[in-house]
Structure formats: structure tokens, C-alpha cells
Amino acid sequence: MSRPIDLRQLHQGAPWDELWHDWRTLKFELHIVPPTWVLADIVLANGYTGILFPSQAHEGGTNLVVYPEQPKSGNAVIVNDPDGRLPHDQTGWAR
């Protein structure tokens, strides 16, 4: 699969492992570091290139995690930056 897994669809009847539902409870309610490496392994083992999930910081927003170690399959990320806040070249990412 050359696409990210979309966690915004957790409650739409997809056959999700319970771990997907529990990690937020572990982190934010029980203050336990969640087993995110297990989640990443599941995603990578199933051929996904990343994870899309709802933003907790911006209502209606979406976050994307990309795993560049997945084999190249013609994937591309198109950045939506309508306010021009992101750097325009690599030098802008340096600290």
C-alpha cells in the first residue's frame, strides 16, 4: 500500500486493533508512554507509508506522520501552506 493509514476513520467500522483506541488514554489519562513503536511497526508491516490523524491542537485539522523508510513507490507530499509560514528551502529548517 502506498498511502498512509487514516486514523480519522477509527469509528467508522474499520477493523482497527484496540491499540489504536487505547494509546490516547494511556498517554493523556494514565500518563504512561504509549507503545507508539508497536503502532509504527503495524503500519509499516502492512505497507502503509504513514499515519493521518485528527489534530488535538486545531479543531478540524489533520496531522500526518510519514515513514520515509518505506520503499519508494512514487509517493509525494503536497504541502498546503496558504499563509506562507513554512520555509521555502532547506535553509529555513535549520535552527
Automatic annotation (TrEMBL):
Q: Where is this region: Disordered?
A: 75-95
Query: Residues in domain RES?
Result: 15-88
Query: According to its UniProt record, what is one Pfam family this protein matches?
Result: RES
Please state what the protein is called. RES family NAD+ phosphorylase
- According to its UniProt entry, this protein's organism is Thauera sinica
> The organism's lineage?
Bacteria, Pseudomonadati, Pseudomonadota, Betaproteobacteria, Rhodocyclales
